[in-house]
Design brief:
This protein has 13 helices and 11 strands. It has 314 residues and is α/β, with parallel strands linked by helices. A hairpin with a 2-residue loop joins strand 3 and strand 4. The radius of gyration is 18 Å and the shape is globular. The protein binds pseudouridine-5'-monophosphate (PSU) and manganese (II) ion.
Amino acid sequence: MTALRPSAEVADALATGRPVVALESTIISHGLPRPRNLEAAREFEAILRDAGVTPATIAVLDGEARIGLDDEGVRRIAEEELAKASVRDLPILAARGGSGATTVAATAWLAAAAGVRVFATGGLGGVHRGAAGDPAIPGGAAQAATFDESADLPTLGEVPVTIVSAGVKSVLDIGATLERLETLSVPVVGWRTHAFPAFWLRESGFELDWRVEGPEEVAEIMRARDALGSRAGIVVANPVPEHQAWERAEHDRVLAEAFAAAEAAGVRGKAVTPFLLGTIVELSGGRSLEINLDLARNNVRVAAEIATAWARGA
Ligand code: PSU
Ligand code: MN
């Protein structure tokens, strides 16, 4: 990699101790349909600017790890057919001058390398159903032969980034994901709740040991982590606001149908998640997409507060 390339705006904010929040590009490239994805990319940045925070949308473009994109860069991640890039893809894209939309793992890794400590996303990747060896859980059979765990988890064990997410999608094995975060020594705190959220739902049925009431508390935990010499990230689990969450019965019905469709179509391995997500948007008549956007905006707002508290004390 030639180098990290922070935008002038991000470099200036970091040099003068002003708040910066990292945003991922995979959610724009692969997680949201066009043209809503371009609107969303611009809107997430606007929410940060309105809060006095510098946005650092991260992607690899023409071999350069860009930390903060200009208008053209944002347009490219929304409209070009970019490869989904995780941490392991970074050296290859860099060496070949290639381009890629960065996952949570790759975004967190590059953010940390550039000195950006707070990151907002929609949902974290995790352990896929069946990967933990339980083909009995719905959707488990399709994945039982593979061990599919997102690089988001081990990467968060190694990079000092605080990530705000609405938990993990209920298409994953949430219990196994939380166990892995424990093994990897990644602190998980609930934002004004003890209930770990399940993306479209405010509660997954899993309880967290720790909750925080506001941004200052998170910034204190980040400073304590640094003082202790820990290098792990922190997950701030932020449930979608009550009035925006999916009705549980409708959620359960749509997911059951989507899992059945995946089994019937014989979808396997890494094709399972994109298949499920597309089917869920379709079967919900677009409702799941609106909630996805609402929870992501909500995470961006909370990340702005945390980055501001962090910059105040740094
Ligand atoms: N969760 C979402 N939308 C997404 C993703 C996760 O709600 O688009 C993306 C993120 O970029 C995450 C990646 O890092 O999927 C995880 O993919 P994998 O399981 O292949 O590591
Ligand atoms: Mn995977």
